[in-house]
Design goal:
15-stranded mixed sheet, about 40% helix, about 500 residues, Endonuclease, Chain A, alpha/beta
Amino acid sequence: MDVDQIVTDLLRLLGEPLWQWLLGALYLAIALLAVVHAMLYKRDSRAAIAWIAVTLLFPLLGPALYYLFGINRVRSHAHRLGGQRRPLLQVGHERGVVSGMNAATPAGLGSEFKPFARVSGRMTTQPLVAGNRILTLHNGEEAYPAMLAAIARAERRVLLCSYIFESDRTGRQFVAALVAARERGVEVRVLVDGFGELYSWPRIGRLLRRAELPAARFLPPRLLPPSLFVNLRNHRKILLVDDREAFTGGINIGDRHLLKSDSRKHAADLHFRVQGPILGQLEEVFLTDWRITTGETLPPLCRSIEPLTDGAVFCRCISDGPGEDLDRISQTLMGAMSAAREEILIITPYFLPSREMVASLQSAALRGVRVVILLPEVNNLPFVHWASRNLLWELLLYGVEIRYQPPPFSHAKLFVADRCYAQVGSANLDPRSLRLNFELNLELFSGDTVLQLAMEAHRRYQLSAPVTLEEMDGRSLPVRLRDAFFWLFQPYL
């Protein structure tokens, strides 16, 4: 090598402006930080390698992309919502908290329920409580009249939380009922997700303010100061009336859940009327969300509800979100899959399970457990439907039964194991629901009530069309490419 050329090149580099040296040093420092962060905090080695490659191969752009999309700031933001502060340089692992405090099963719980109760007892902070009554409500035609009647009976307090609260005819009925309750002297609080209220115009928040109802928006998007989070949504649905009854499940408030309405976006769904001591746990979830959103602390009303004498259902609330509650619903579901010995029934509108959940379903089928998954034939989010079809063969190959429910679009969520254990609530089986949203599921331990839910799943099964491995393998190349393309975006769907 020519020594003179080396000296010339060195002198040329030393003659470069100082800002170029500083820029290069800054890039190296930022790239190194991104690489170290990906190595320490990414749970998937493939994701870590991919982000390291992007960071090193694309100067400045790579670290910027990692900062925007690679770091799970959702969890850090959830800490700030809860009033907790992290040190400036501490990001933390993407994980929840395993409590283990409720691993012991309560007296009176049958032996067939205990394998399921032990799993959720380790993952949750709530005890399993007896003496509850659960009533299943189909679609808005059954749910809305019952909810409006409960508001009309309210004497002390009405607490309402909904991801979507539309300003259509149904939404205005609820506003009128809430106004009438307030005028009777009932304490009213309404919590609407800041992104979910954008589903209709005018926004329901404007109608609530005009009616002078105490209402708040959970993380509303805004430009100044910037807050454009699509993630971190409050997807829970709770209506709590006094200390007598509550409603929870998958139904939002709007005409879309009325199958006989004029809405073009019909959605069939399940909702549940709840009575008994479990109201205390539902109230705790709402009051926490209200305090986080508004700073107002409301006293509880439902801490000392006596068990119903004719209520044979043991219940527990499982709250899930990107803070300490991270992965609670997915972990309890996978634990229930491992505890099942005869049958697993799943109804969900969106099906993009994690690799771990796919393995749990495959393992259950290999053990001889009958695994049935019912999905909507027509989905309101076609790209989620296409992405889901890219992975169905992995389950069909192991003997999992998958069927498509005929229209209208089914928004129902239901998990039943061995006809004695069930989960109902707001959570879908996709990454956004199980890792990025605030969700609420209700565990049910009961012979009769859960058996009725199993019969509901079997009724839908009979009406649904089977999906076969031959059908998945026989997709044309353009269709398979379309499905695979949208599957690439699974973590964000």
